[in-house]
Amino acid sequence: MQQLITTVLTGLTLGAVYAAFALALVLIWRATRIVNFAQAPMAMITTYIALVLIDAGMSYWVGFAAALVSGLVLGALVERFVIRHLTGKSEINAVILTLGLFIVIHALAALIFGARYRSFPAPFGLRGFQVGDTTIALTGFGVFTILSVVGVMVLLVLLFRGTDVGLRMRASAFNQEMARLLGVRVGRMLTLGWALAAVVGSLSGLLIAGGGLVHPSYMDGVVVYGFVAAVLGGLDSPPGAVAGGVILGLSLSLVSGYVGSELVPLASLVILMAVLLVRPGGLFAQVRERRV
Amino acid sequence: MLTVDDLTASYGPVTALDGVSFEAPRGEITAVLGANGAGKTTLLRTVSGLIRPTRGTARLGEHDLTSVPTERMAELGLAHVPEGRGVITELTVEENLRLGALGRGRRGPADLDRAYALFPILAERRGRSAHVLSGGERQMLVIARALLAAPSVLLLDEPSLGLAPRIVAQIFDLLRSLVESDGLTVLLVEQNARSALSIADRGVVLNLGRVVVRDTAAALAGDDALRHAYLGF
Amino acid sequence: MDRLLGRSTLRRHLTLAVLGMLVVVVVLESTGPFRNAQFASMAYYGIAGAGLTILIGLNGQISLGHGAFMAIGAYTAALMLQGGDPLPLPVILLAAALVTLVAGAVVGVAAARLHGPYLAGATLALAVAVPGIPVYFSGTLGGEQGLNVRVPDIPPWFADAVFFVTGQDMSRSRYLGYLGWFCLVVTFVLLANLARGRVGRTWRAVRDNEVAAELAGIDLGRARVLAFVVSATCAGLAGGLLALSARIAAPSGFTLTLSLLLLSAIVLGGLGTLTGALIGAAMLTFVPQLVTGLGQDLGLTDVRAAELAPLTYGLVTMLVVLFAPAGIVGGIRAAAARRRAVKTSGTSKEARKDEAMDEIRGVTGDRHPGGGVRRG
Question: Where is the composition biased (Basic and acidic residues) (chain C) (predicted)?
Fold first, then answer.
């Protein structure tokens, strides 16, 4: 029982991070029909920026903000100067392009920051809370993780549902030509979309790193889990991505707790294949069939 | 006034529009007629910048539209309702309308009320996904949305396509009254030449990308030979 | 050229293979152990790249998981070499290829139903997942440390034969070089024949237009699975050779980076061409040393300078995708085609140009714009 509770709490925390990363992938997929595999190294390199500032003696929060801002800038730059030039090519080319970017950012990070493991601080406690005389697997940082992901989701919902910019962004994502005819600057909206997605990606990078080790490859697994979570939710749906992230976090936590942490990536592969082959539209698909 | 002069556009080696010239005067409906493939839709798409012409100009007042990006057409007062797919089905009815109002600066909710007054059925469905609308309701939505941008020129591509005659008549009556009350300029592309000419002031007949004839609507409707050859009624 | 190589495709390929093998002998005999080892690496990169380029370029399926298949081949070979009295190397390499073939078939059946980004994501998961397996089964598979591989003794008859021809003694690295390049030549001949023949036409048809291919009676799923299996088998063979060359099979040797570098190498060379795979393999083998030296001259530490190689691959991959999707081989072919088109005159000029364009399109792997709906 004790272990089950531990597993569930760990799963929820991890699930929140996967949900954030999946959300980043979904935002870009909706707008440009590209799965941005480079999201992982993009998040990784912004975490390094935070680490450099923190190691230089600044507060965690300065580093945290700097990472999110550099995510915003990086996302915008990538869309404007790389992705924009891909229009009209085959989908394999889009995949290869984001992977090229993956390799580039990865190598750059190792070149600039070195390839060794470095520890990344956490702003809140990493020891589990005491309930009675047992320690549960929910830490202060875990609570912060869950709350910040929920906070980002609320902000995104407010942005997309409640503001004119959000409406313009959604219109650009769904129907570019009509959006342009209605006076929406579609190019700017796509840049903004990539920028926002990169911020959300950076957040997940910071949350994974907190209290752990940072390394140029530390997000490689997360891109897989984020992708699986996004596909679980249907790849097109932000709420689906969030639900997919939580479900995946719980399932992988069970695998890690009861089978072995080495097999977690394999479990995610099995879950991915099962979903793609049985319910290609995601767990929550209603009617519309989808080509996978 | 919308002035099209020597407009030429092509899809690769195929010339879809070949030296088209005509004027659409302010406060009038100009019908663009012709068979399938005559270049009617290409004409509208070239005017609104979705297709770049290889030659010629389209002018709106003092602006040369051929150098204006599509995104800025709404600001200049040009609204284009494309054939068929104009509704953004993933948004709600109200969001579609809001998008139209955004096209020309920020406007208050009063404008949406005007759209709802024109088409009460849209008010009933305002919170629903546009996906659930019928064909006629979609057509009303795209026209209402275009009007919310307060355009001076409205490009309409096949508004009657697939709609019941009663709804077509309703939409055409509305157009007529807008033209007369607001001085709107309308460029109306139609397959259904008979009903288009019944509300238009003048017409341009295209064939294989060229202008065959420009004249008043009455004259075109009265020319039997022309009607049989190009207009199919 | 045609007269020299003969008309029949098979004969042509075999002639090229013999000529290639002669070049290999000359090169391996005239270089030292360090270069020999590098050529052995180039051989396994070439084999894995050839398999991948066939899959992506000819069949339009992408795989980011070929590093995982190489791992399967490498571990198979390493396990078979654990005992004191191992089977002959050809048997071991064949087994590495066959075990990977089975794994490729399992993955391929699932992969055949996916396309584009979905397939990319699934194979990416494969690449990340497989290195965890030996860690979990650390008892048999050696955990993080991996399995050490002892290269068996060089068969005396082989050493004697080479000595008879070249007058030089056989070193281990040269032996591995011969082994690798022999496998490469055999693989290339088989793949070239497959690509030129009915199977290759089927693959291309599926890539270009699924609906048309299906209407022409092609079983889409079968064509895809076959391409995936062939491709994975190549990766397995390459993995076996890698284990021998590196003398170890360990999880750290098969990271996601390996899969991605393999992909970038064949994109640079030119998707869908075996020559491109060979060029890509040469770059994977020789560019690191080159740019690392450059980085050291610029005052970088060894570890950091080593990152210049992937940085270069990544950048060039992006540039190739954006500006020259046909890669190096495609670029050369396009230039040659233009020259031919200019040389020939009159009406045949257009025909020649079309033919040349087909040739170019054949290697770019661009999907038909109307891509079609996938079923089943």
Answer: 349-369
pTM value?
0.86
Helix (H) or strand (E) holding A70: helix A60-81
Give the structural domain span for B53: 1-77+152-233
Query: For residue C50, which of C244, C328, C270 has the smallest C-alpha distance?
Result: C270
- d(CA A274, CA A289) in angstroms, rounded, equals 16
Chain A residues within an 8 Å CB radius of B107: none
Q: State whether B70 and B92 are in the same domain.
A: no
Write the residue in A95, A221, A291 that is nearest to C373 by C-beta: A291
Report yes or no on A7 lying in a domain: no
Substitution target in A81, A90, A91, A92 with the highest count of C β-carbons within 10 Å is A92
What confidence tier does A283 reach under pLDDT thresholds 50, 70, 90? confident
C164 by Cβ neighbours in 10 Å (0-12 / 13-18 / 19+) ranks as exposed
**Confidence (pLDDT) at C80:** 92
Rounded-to-integer distance, Cα C277 and Cα C264, Å? 10
Total domain count for chain A? Answer: 1
Domain ranges of chain C: 2-304
What are the CB-based long-range contacts (under 8 Å, 24+) for C85-94? C86/C152, C88/C152, C88/C155, C89/C152, C89/C179, C89/C244, C92/C240, C93/C179, C93/C183, C93/C237, C93/C240, C93/C241
Whole-angstrom Cα distance, residue B139 to residue B124?
Answer: 16
Cβ atoms A211, A126 nearer than 8 A? yes
Q: In terms of C-beta density within 10 A (0-12 exposed, 13-18 middle, 19 or more buried), how is residue A120 classed?
A: buried
Answer whether residue B196 shows pLDDT above 50: yes
A132 Cα to chain C: minimum distance (Å): 36
- Split at pLDDT 50, 70, 90, the class of C254 is very high
Question: What pLDDT digit, counting tens, does each position of C83-96 carry?
Answer: 777 888 889 999 99
Report the complex ipTM.
0.91
Query: At residue C112, does pLDDT exceed 70?
Result: yes
A39/A29 Cα distance (integer angstroms): 12
**E strands present in chain C:** 147-148, 248-249
